[in-house]
Design goal:
Largest sheet: none
Radius of gyration: 16 Å
Helix content: over 70%
Oligomer: single chain
Number of strands: 0
Structural class: mainly alpha
Number of domains: 1
Number of helices: 4
Order of helices and strands: HHHH
């Protein structure tokens, strides 16, 4: 990332990717809110939290071989998806 910050073309590409990634995840949350599947909340904040969690956990999984993929998926699913489900739709 430090090298990307120093190279304008790489930095711009990463910046564009990040903006598109957040927008895609935000749309996922917003569709859930609009359909009543998710409780009303700030979709952009949830998107940023999920993106950050996914981005960060990849490093931890590379460093800690005891960190299981299934455990990570279950944890992120609960904390960033299931808690937002509308009780009337569960």
């Amino acid at each position: 990332m430090t090298k990307a910050m120093n190279q304008k073309d790489i930095f711009n590409a990463y910046q564009k990717f990040t903006e598109e990634y957040i927008a895609m995840i935000k749309d996922f949350y917003q569709k859930g809110i609009n359909s009543g599947e998710f409780i009303p909340h700030n979709a952009r904040q949830s998107a940023i939290a999920l993106m950050s969690a996914l981005d960060g956990v990849l490093v931890y999984m590379a460093l800690d071989k005891k960190l299981l993929f299934e455990e990570v998926v279950e944890s992120l699913n609960y904390r960033l998806v299931e808690v937002l489900l509308n009780d009337n739709k569960k």
